[in-house]
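MODEL INPUT / OUTPUT PAIR
PAIR INDEX: 1
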Amino acid sequence: MWLKKAFDSSDAGKVSKATFSSEDAIAKFGVGKNMVASIRHWALACDVLREESEDAYAVTDTAQKVLRDGGLDPYSENPSTAWHAHWQLAGKGNRATTWYWLFNHVTASTFSRDELEPALAAFASSLDAKRKLSASTLSRDLETCLRSYAPRAAGGSPEDYAEPLLGELGLLYEEHKGQFAFRRGPKPTLHDGLFAYALLDYWDRSAAGLSSLAFENLAYAEGSPGRVFKLDEESIAERLLALESLTSGALSWTDTAGLRQVHRQQIDARKLGARMIERAYG
């Protein structure tokens, strides 16, 4: 419920930054001081809030539609809310370098946290060579990321094995203690509308000026829906076939003479993306 807590702290679509640092923040949010900082972080990372000025955050249009009382999913019960959060973290890397790296750069069939740590450290260094990150910081961040999708079966406290928001997506599982693997293939809870939203988002970031995009890009490129959602080729093709009807012709799929492409009409991609979000909630 942290995303909802952050949203409910807004007034007229704005949240003062002092909301998270004031003396009464603990009482307002009903959590400890460190968790208040975590609520702010995840609200920004999951695109509930965005930086607006030195003094305030703005509530995003998507959060307004989804999390307001009477909205599409105010209590984060619909899988589309979790898929949207996953896309922000792993597809776009919003304040979540480890999430982006794990889903876009790790190709091993199985892996452990210890095996991943050196590669993550090298990736972080390539982004900012001047900033030194301690091994313990990287290890904790990686553990948090893995447990966001594959929670412990048991633990010392309820928080250690409570089902996290992203755990319901079935993207990652623990084969045996400390050894993890991605679960590739169809994702029944991923709505075609959310897939189309992610496709448009990826398109605008990777090839905004192009009117067509190759299947290989959508399936395998870094930051693509196929890679971030861990879909197999058949699952992607099925979803692409549904695009024309879903988007009223704004997007269409062709597979002729071995050339597989998605085509885009001259459209306002942002408006279409917003429509696809609404479709994702039925």
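PAIR INDEX: 2
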Amino acid sequence: MKKILSFFILLNLILPIYAKTYEGSVSEKGLRSNRIIDKATGQGIGGAKITLPKENYSTKTNKDGYFELDTAIDGTSILSVQKDKYKPFSMTVTQKTFDTPIEVSIEKSNAHDISIDANMYHLGDGSFSENSANAGEFQSNAVGPFYTKRFNLKHLNLSSPIYLVIGSIIGIDTIMARSMGQNLRPNAYASPPEVYFNGNKVSEIQINGDGQKIKLPRNLVKRGVNEVTIKTGRNLSQRAYIDYDDIEFMNLSIEN
């Protein structure tokens, strides 16, 4: 699995269905069932919440961290793992991902980390091609061309880097996404989604993927109320009217 550094974003690409190893946090172990473990200790984590928003499905791990998925996965989906005192985790999965049981390691959060929003959001105008990147995952209605959320940062370690993390994002139809085979629209492409922090543009997102990190300039981060905005791109091949690119994202957080 390749890593790409683009516009100050360090990200993991959407995993191909034939992947045997999930770099960093997930690896196939041949266990008797799927498991969530602590990254530092290797111990199972009980009571972790596993969700597949597309399938409207959720479950929890048992006391030893094991869980079963009693639902079929249609196409590509986003799987989310949440547990108190741990950093939120998302990954894109298919039914083949679970042909062999998987083990997912998650990290404990520290006093400076914060979960901004764990929900899934659909940006755009609700008009998209079936060949759009990951269009099969779109389930929720579009909330419009942008998302804004205010949140409080009471404790910051200004001597350490501060990152805005997007757990998972799908549906991006940029030229780069198309060149990587993430959509099948040969004659259409969109401008990249833009990310703003406290009114300042801090990044553009060129491709779909999981665990995208955006390093925030320290002079933009406030001790107190901050604001993040994500604006979807526009279909640049459509000139008769404004056609917003439909995307979905899940799990926004701050790592410090």
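PAIR 2 NOTE: Residues 1-31, 128-138 have pLDDT under 50 and may be disordered.
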